[in-house]
Amino acid sequence: MSKQLHFCIHGAGGLGSLIGGFLARGGHKVTLIARKPHVEAIRSDGLHVEGVRAQFVQKDNLFAVETPDEVEGDIDYYILLTKAKGSDQALSDAQILVGRTACALTMQNGVNKERKLQAAFGKDKVIGGSIMDGATLLGPGKTLNHMAVPITAYFGELEGGESDRTRAIADALDQAGMGSRSTPDIVHVHWEKLVQVGGASGWSASTLGGITKLDFVDGIAVTEGAEQYVLLVKDLIAIYRALGYEPQNFFAPVSRLIEIDQESFEEAVKGVLELGSRFKPENRPVRTSMHDDLVAGRRMEVDEVLGPLADAAKRLNVDAPTFLSAFRVLKTLNAYL
Q1: For 160-170, what is the mean pLDDT?
Q2: How many angstroms separate the Cα of 72 from the Cα of each of 81, 95, 158?
Q3: 192/256 Cα distance (integer angstroms)
Q4: Is 66 in contact with 40 (CB distance < 8 Å)?
Q5: Using one digit for the tens of pLDDT, what is the confidence trace for 92-114?
Q6: What pLDDT is stored for residue 282 in this prediction?
Q7: CA 275, 278, 281, 287 torsion-angle sign
Q8: Which of 47, 57, 60 is nearest to 15 (CA)?
Q9: Nearest-CA neighbor of 50 among 125, 153, 134, 173?
Q10: 302 and 327 Cβ atoms separated by less than 8 Å
Q11: Taking the CA atoms of the chain, what radius of gyration do you get in angstroms?
């Protein structure tokens, strides 16, 4: 490690805690802003990380606070990881950090998610970031990393290109054990992640939400479930291509967008059925955050994740019946959450 950086992660739930734990283990200073029970547990017993990448307890280099005004020192990277609905309040609270922050980013789902961050921190301080790892809190002070891919995070300048600051954060996370890269086209990554997350979320929440114990792997273990998933993803790829992009499988092997695009329907269904075998039983349940929200009775991020894709389908006159049907179902459910 060439230089110790200070990362401040605002909204440190399962994923934020996972990222912070790895960065702290890699020798960087990390401040997690989280809820009181989580903060108290970390201060008392450290952060317990379990899952597919590693198992460890992190105490060194890791600080946990409840509010931004408790954060000490200059910040190299401020990372917003609240739910989208919590962004406004979080950024309002974070105004006290703006003058001490060199660079800010959000790794929330969605496109155009950086606009609020630019308004809060200034356009020049904001870069783009995207991550695919799945993590959830098992309880205060404990996070489970239930899904990971070899290259899980990308960083880039929003106007295009790379820079020292996009390479520095990518190198820090990569060296800490979470594969990461700096990229010249982060907006392309944002859209592909939206297709990937939109496919998994839109399918799982609309298909499996009626039985709370089911997870993603249960759904793709059934042929008809895998067929529904493939149809929905093919719809999203059509929208993606109409926007001017080609699938790259940035988050391989989980994404399989290139394969689903190129394979026949039957071949794609077979590949999805086989995907479930990669998830180990001890790392279940595997759910998207949207599916988790539905099971918990919380408002889902339907507008933030699926809305831009639905808007693009209508604007570009793309035939996407399976996806739009799932979108309508989830919008209906959201009206009562």
Answers
A1: 98
A2: 19, 14, 28
A3: 11
A4: no
A5: 999 999 999 999 999 998 888 99
A6: 59
A7: negative
A8: 47
A9: 134
A10: yes
A11: 19
Q: How far is Cα 70 from Cα 90, in angstroms, rounded to an integer?
A: 14
Nearest to 305 by CA among 227, 193, 229, 167: 193
Q: Model pTM greater than 0.85?
A: yes
CA–CA distance from 63 to each of 6, 24, 41, 74, 254 (Å)?
Answer: 11, 9, 11, 14, 32
Cis peptide bond upstream of 253, omega within 30: yes
Alpha-carbon gap, residue 21 to 222, rounded angstroms? 36
Q: Strand, helix or coil at 9?
A: strand
Burial level of 175, CB count in 10 A (0-12/13-18/19+)? middle
One-letter amino acid of 85 = K
Burial of 178 (0-12, 13-18, 19+ CB in 10 A): buried
DSSP SS3 for 215:
coil
Residue 293's Cβ-count burial label (10 Å; 0-12, 13-18, 19+) is: buried
Q: Which amino acid is at 80?
A: L
Who has greater pLDDT, 24 or 85? 24
Sequence-distant (≥ 6) Cβ neighbours of residue 124 within 8 angstroms: none
Which pLDDT score is estimated for 287?
Answer: 83
Which segments of the chain does DSSP mark as H helices, in order?
14-25, 36-45, 87-93, 115-121, 164-176, 186-208, 216-220, 223-242, 257-262, 265-275, 289-296, 302-305, 307-315, 321-334
Cα angle for residues 86, 19, 153 (degrees, 5° grid): 90
Q: Nearest to residue 28, comparing CAs of 7, 12, 56?
A: 7
Q: What SS3 string covers 20-41? A: HHHHHHCCCEEEEECCHHHHHH
DSSP code string of 297-330: TPPP-HHHHTHHHHHHHHHTT---HHHHHHHHHH
Query: CB–CB of 302/331 below 8 Å?
Result: yes
Other C-beta atoms within 10 Å of 194: how many? 26
Burial 307-321 (b: 16+ CB within 10 A, else e): bbbbebbeeeebebe
- Mean per-residue pLDDT, 238-242: 97
